[in-house]
Amino acid sequence: MQVIVKQGRTALHLACNREAALVGRYPVCQFPLPQLVKALLLVGADPNALDEEGNSPLHLSALARPCPVTLAQALVEHGGHLVSSS
Q: For 32-43, what is each residue's pLDDT tens digit?
């Protein structure tokens, strides 16, 4: 599953990004959102996908400060790396 959005980011990138937001009058969640990250990983989202700036979902989650531990664990358990193989 690969959903491409602005800046080459996938849905997983957005779920890990503190700056992502739901547009609307009544936001229903705040990012990063570990539950959404886990769901996306379970349906095959690539934890090592890179956006146009070379950021993986794990990179973006680390910028959250503090990064939710459960989010980082889920990404690493599904093969996420801080260093790209390219």
A: 888 999 999 999
